């Protein structure tokens, strides 16, 4: 699948390009963001602020969202569909390790570090994402400390869940089962 | 706790002669063995509830608890999916079709499905944990109209480890939302990669307080699945786990499978999470 992604150009259809002013499209973006799990615990006002840095992205199956090693500004909240994350291992090619789905956050390096992607992301099916500019979000967070605290706390919760999930994968629970279970 | 199907109890000490009617390889190291009960009167009255288990006996080697994976409505033989893990299961894997062995059962408490008609269900299985859930799946397919949404999430280490994968499309067609996932995928696997908990975390639950979760698999998986379900609004008393320990007598006398104040063989193997949560994380229990 990753090979398919490499051969195809990035095709991002921008439905809405965010700016600091409210536009007619922004309520829709806000509605979509509110409907995601990512929005849990964030106030309507804070989510409206996030949408000022956002735009909607719709992708077809097997399209590249971002590539490992590239520097990207945007962080994505999946509204619908799925994105497969893979890392390139010399001699093994792109090794997929996670399927992210609705409500998941991908490409978070754009928000909390230098924006260098640590995985290649390719869509699995028709996927709609809310893309948030990392640079713009950082500016917003610097101006509005309350938003910054709430947003980074939410991001930390998401990453904590991702870490737990990764840990369970690494523990290889089904291998252990072979020696413990009788049936 | 009651079960959908009332299983008449045999003399628990009596071992019935059964014949290997069919052996089916499932996934690497796992096979399904259909056992035909030889004695006609026993065969005609043998019934089990989804979630129960039998004790399979190979003379000279020993006896082992194996979950029943058959359709509760099937008659004539009873299927067990077995992972080759020790001497007895290895010997079972080498038995030829037509061989005879012993069977006691059925034992244990089944999934309390009768209590949850009209509710939404989430079944979470990991690895061979799908086997004890298969009779429940058969029951749900046969009584699909009696329940709300039914989600089935099953995980395996890799795609080749997904049990009963040939049946998934039939289950989907029968009205179940089926979500297979693997820990380790590759380019040949188009499906989901990640733990069952990741799918559970984002599963659309329309009425969590009216949702029941039943899970079977590695205890760590069940523990975190229960946490997520409860965090999402499923009531703790509506979360069920199927536990497993070394069962020996199967009727609560020998104490091998004691788990706190309970014996898994007679009080379980299926428990409300409420009942066992406080001791699931006790080391070496």
Q: Distance N terminus to C terminus of chain A?
A: 35 Å
- The radius of gyration computed from the alpha-carbon positions of chain B, rounded to a whole number of angstroms, is 18 Å
State Rg of chain A: 17 Å
Q: Quick one: how many beta strands of chain A?
A: 9
Side-by-side strand order of the widest sheet of chain A: 1-2-9-4-7
Which architecture of chain A per CATH? Sandwich
SS-derived structural category of chain A: alpha+beta
Choose one word for the global shape of chain A: globular
Query: Ranges of chain B with pLDDT <50 over ≥5 residues?
Result: 1-5
Description:
The complex is a heterodimer of chains A (183) and B (285). Chain A is an alpha+beta fold and 183 residues long. Chain A is 39% helix and 26% strand. In chain A, helix 2 packs across helix 3 (44-51) and helix 5 (134-143) packs across helix 6 (145-170). Chain B folds into two domains: 16-107, Translation factors (Elongation Factor Tu (Ef-tu), domain 3, Beta Barrel), CATH 2.40.30; 113-242, Nucleotide-binding domain of ferredoxin-NADP reductase (FNR) module (Rossmann fold). Chain B has helices spanning 40-45, 87-94, 130-142, 168-173, 196-202, 219-231, 264-267, 273-280, and strands at 16-25, 30-37, 53-58, 62-67, 77-83, 100-107, 120-126, 150-156, 177-182, 192-193, 211-216, 239-242, 258-259, 262-263, 270-272. Chain B has a seven-stranded mixed beta sheet with strand order 10-9-8-7-11-12-15, with helices on both faces. A six-stranded antiparallel beta sheet of chain B has the order 4-3-6-1-2-5. In chain B, strands 13-14 form a two-stranded antiparallel sheet. The A-B interface holds A 1-3, 37, 82, 84, 93-99, 101-104, 124, 161, 164-165, 168-169, 171-183 and B 29, 53, 64-67, 80-83, 85-86, 89, 126-129, 131-132, 155-157, 161, 181, 183-187, 189-195, 197-199, 201-202, 217-218, 220-221, 224, 244, 246-247.
């Amino acid at each position: 699948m990753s090979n398919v992604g490499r051969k195809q150009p990035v095709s991002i259809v921008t439905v809405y390009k965010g700016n600091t002013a409210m536009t007619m499209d922004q309520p829709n973006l806000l509605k979509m963001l509110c409907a995601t799990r990512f929005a849990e615990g964030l106030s309507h006002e804070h989510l409206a602020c996030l949408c000022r840095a956002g735009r909607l992205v719709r992708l077809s199956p097997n399209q590249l969202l971002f590539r490992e090693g590239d520097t990207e500004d945007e962080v994505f909240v999946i509204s619908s569909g799925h994105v497969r994350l893979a890392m390139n291992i010399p001699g093994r090619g792109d090794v997929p390790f996670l399927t992210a789905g609705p409500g998941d956050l991908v490409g978070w390096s754009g928000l909390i570090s230098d924006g260098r992607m640590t995985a290649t992301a390719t869509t699995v099916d028709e996927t709609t994402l809310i893309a948030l500019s990392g640079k713009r979000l950082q500016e917003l967070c610097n101006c509005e400390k309350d938003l910054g605290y709430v947003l980074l706390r939410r991001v930390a919760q998401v990453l904590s869940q991702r870490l737990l999930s990764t840990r369970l994968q690494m523990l290889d629970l089904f291998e252990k089962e072979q020696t413990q279970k009788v049936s | 706790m009651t079960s959908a199907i009332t299983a008449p109890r045999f003399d628990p000490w009596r071992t019935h002669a059964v014949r290997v009617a069919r052996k089916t390889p499932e996934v690497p190291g796992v096979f399904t063995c259909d056992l035909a009960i030889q004695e006609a009167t026993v065969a005609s009255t043998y019934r089990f509830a989804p979630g129960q288990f039998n004790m399979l006996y190979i003379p000279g080697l020993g006896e082992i608890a194996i979950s029943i994976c058959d359709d509760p409505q099937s008659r004539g033989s009873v299927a067990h999916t077995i992972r080759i893990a020790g001497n007895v299961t290895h010997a079972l894997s080498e038995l030829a079709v037509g061989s005879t062995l012993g069977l006691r059962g059925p034992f244990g408490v089944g999934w309390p499905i009768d209590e949850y008609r009209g509710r939404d269900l989430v079944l979470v299985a990991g690895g061979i944990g799908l086997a004890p859930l298969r009779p429940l799946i058969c029951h749900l397919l046969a009584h699909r109209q009696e329940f709300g949404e039914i989600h089935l999430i099953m995980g395996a280490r890799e795609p080749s480890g997904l049990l009963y994968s040939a049946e998934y499309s039939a289950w989907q067609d029968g009205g179940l939302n089926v979500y297979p996932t693997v820990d380790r995928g590759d380019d040949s696997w188009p499906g989901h990669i990640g733990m069952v908990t990741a799918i559970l975390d984002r599963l659309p639950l329309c009425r969590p307080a009216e949702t029941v979760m039943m899970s079977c698999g590695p205890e760590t998986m069940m523990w975190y699945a229960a946490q997520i379900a409860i965090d999402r609004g499923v009531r703790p008393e509506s979360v069920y786990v199927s536990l497993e320990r070394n069962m020996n007598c199967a009727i609560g006398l020998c104490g091998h499978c004691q788990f706190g104040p309970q014996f898994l063989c007679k009080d379980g193997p299926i428990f409300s999470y409420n009942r066992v949560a406080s001791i699931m994380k006790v080391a070496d229990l």
